């Protein structure tokens, strides 16, 4: 999108546009700020700042809820690593827009997980600083879409297609996502093809919408997928049963220009120490400061073999006392990842094993400090699996191999952790995954 066509409506939007103008025109940043402010209808940047900050309690204060988005990266060829964190503002707390489980329902959010009431972070380490920034910007755009429309991402694809069949989907669809309204239970299809491809299918798409009774609308806000690379957002819904498009378009058109890597204004920092948001710190301090009287007065069997900790966003938890060697964690991680890459379509296995590794990942954080376990090594223990298979079935030999892997996980855990309620609960999850694997039809 040409910077001349952008008309930001917020101070952050003006700053992002100024960065693009600075690069495009090769001018000083101060001049770029004034030019960006003028494109938004102000005399200069000072005028814009005074107007947009009017009525706030302090300079640069703004209403809403702050959300931090973090991605860690490592460039192996350049032997460099770091952390990228972007701050965005939402009208609604992110936890009220989407549940942690629903983060998996959209491509831009699927690798993020809660780190605090004001923080989402990717736990896998990406391969470059640029990739980290692109991932954050895509997540930010998606969250802005949700915050503005109050729609949630969905995997119920058939609900958004004519007659519930994907064979009836709009011609030329690309990079699409499904959204639903929690109040009305209505659905919307967000299509984000590249503009030239959409134009080549314009007649077919118009005929399709008339044939099926669907409406197609194109907001001026260019979308979530790749707005700086040429993709454009089209909203598609059943004219009678779908989400009404006019209010959605009006809401999106009030958004500032989409956040993109070229206008990056986030924080770039070393990969260690790990970033903790203000909300996460406050939550943890509150949990630790909770009066002892609120704890159970009687220690249950095996409870002496546990130690308490505070899990971000979740709150106080307990884990087995002591720590498992890093080499044992690595072995367990390899075994769990070998099961995960083969079991995506067997959710009774995949979801349980994914939960097991997430819990062990939390335990590892509490057992070792950064000096003992550097970030890049920590991230590789339970994540970064590759070569995922989407097989619908496995042979009996393959299933037996994965059962053996999970049995081995139990043996390693029992060898290194004392008998305790947290360990027994984890073992039950492994047993449940084994049971699901054994009943997976070949």
Descriptive report:
With 442 residues, the protein is an alpha+beta fold. The longest helix has 21 residues, at 129-149. The strands form three sheets. It has a five-stranded mixed sheet. The chain has a five-stranded antiparallel sheet with strand order 5-6-7-9-8. The chain has helices spanning 11-25, 29-39, 45-52, 94-97, 129-149, 195-200, 202-212, 245-252, 278-288, 326-340, 347-367, 375-382, 396-416, 421-438, and strands spanning 65-75, 80-90, 112-116, 119-122, 152-154, 177-180, 187-191, 214-217, 234-238, 267-269, 306-311, 315-320. It is built from 14 helices and twelve strands. The chain has three domains: 3-52, no CATH class; 64-289, no CATH class; 292-438, Ferritin, CATH 1.20.1260. Helix content is 40%, strand content 15%. A hairpin with a 4-residue loop joins strand 1 and strand 2. Helix 10 (326-340) packs antiparallel against helix 13.
How many DSSP-defined strands?
12
Strand count, sense and barrel status of the largest sheet are: 5 strands, mixed
Q: Kindly name the structural category.
A: alpha+beta
The end-to-end distance, rounded to whole angstroms, is 50 Å
Poorly predicted tracts of residues = 1-6, 54-61, 292-301
Would you list the SSEs in sequence order as H and E? HHHEEHEEHEEEHHEEHEHEEHHHHH
Assess the beta-strand content as a share of residues: 15-25%
Shape: globular
Mean pLDDT: 85
Radius of gyration equals 25 Å
Question: What's the helical proportion of residues?
Answer: 40-55%
SS element count, helices: 14
Number of domains: 3
**Adjacency order of strands in the biggest sheet:** 3-4-1-2-10
